Amino acid sequence: MATTGTGPTASEYIVHHLQHFQSVKQGFIVDFSVLNYDTIFFSLLSGLITIALLRMAASRATSGVPGRLQGFVELLVEMVENQSKAIVHGNREFIAPLALTVFVWVVVMNSFDFLPVDLLPRIWEHVATALGIVHDPHHAYLRVVATADLNGTLGMSLGVLCLMLYYSVKIKGAGGFVHELFCAPFGSNPLLWLPNLLLNIIEFAAKTVSLGMRLFGNMYAGELVFMLIALLGSAAALSMGGAAAFLGHVIAGSIWAIFHILIVLLQGFIFMMLTLIYIGQAHTAH
After folding, report:
1. One of 36, 46, 218, 234 is an active-site residue; which one?
2. Is the distance from CB of 69 to CB of 56 less than 8 angstroms?
């Protein structure tokens, strides 16, 4: 589907919205010299929003009849505490608050997907052009859903990996952890040391990659669906059957937004639960 005049085609529209505001143009599939500024910014912004929400709930806490925010946060804290108690057998003074923070943080990052697709990118086009960051507004790229960037989700999963390794050493000791790497799960026979080590390395790598890929895949797909729905709106303005396309735009957008609420919350819950499970496994000896 092509637009009139000099406007972009549908494929060009989607490709434009999938470009990041980057430090340099990516030259390879794996390029560590590239920084996605938009992912960093919206991750930090979501973290600040998370801190502000939890701090607001704590400052308004009362022993009397709780307000809506306090009641919601208390329900959330109780849920996280019950899950952490069932999964992690040990000191949870840091782990339970960590799980709560991870859940709220991921949900806030996911929730940016509910903003109109073109809202913040269009604002950024004007700001970037005015500040001289770009000379052509069509090259002012911005993606607002940090969890739809594999770099962001893999970065989070690498953080979970660091916690897994930390608690493995803390709970079992350095010697115990090394012994487990070489002697579990097949046994302590010297001939099995290398297979045990390889299997454990693969297990840690698989946990890390799957944790990041799961969140990225779901949010990336959701972002694409919202873009396709947005294209129905442009079709409404440019076609003879515009009324039908506009109606489809409204209906499809409303249905997907409602369904996406479940995805946003579910992905936050899954990431939190897997974080607890992986840390809980670090507390358990094979």
Report:
1. 218
2. yes
Catalytic site includes residue 60: no
Cis peptide leading into residue 185 (ω within 30°): yes
Q: How far apart are CA 250 and CA 247, in angstroms?
A: 5
**Cβ proximity of 113 and 260 under 8 Å:** yes
Task: Determine which one of 189, 210, 239, 254 is catalytic.
Answer: 210
Q: For the segment 34-87, what is each residue's pLDDT rounded down to a tens digit?
A: 999 999 999 999 999 999 999 998 888 887 777 888 888 889 999 999 999 999
- What CA–CA distance (Å, rounded) separates 281 from 220? 29
| Terminal CA-CA length for the chain | 57
pLDDT digits (tens, 9 = 90+) for 152-208: 999 999 999 999 999 999 999 999 999 999 999 999 999 999 999 999 999 999 999
> How far, in Å, CA of 226 to CA of 115, rounded?
10
User: Based on C-alpha coordinates, what's the Rg of the chain?
Assistant: 23
Q: Which has the closest alpha carbon to 153: 54, 270, 55, 28?
A: 270
Among 214, 234, 239, 254, the active-site one is: 214
For the question of residue 200 being annotated catalytic, the response is no
Question: Do residues 275 and 92 lie in contact, with contact meaning Cβ atoms separated by under 8 Å?
Answer: no
pLDDT, one tens digit per residue, over 78-87 is 999 999 999 9
DSSP structure class, residue 117: T
Active site residue 92: no
pTM: 0.89
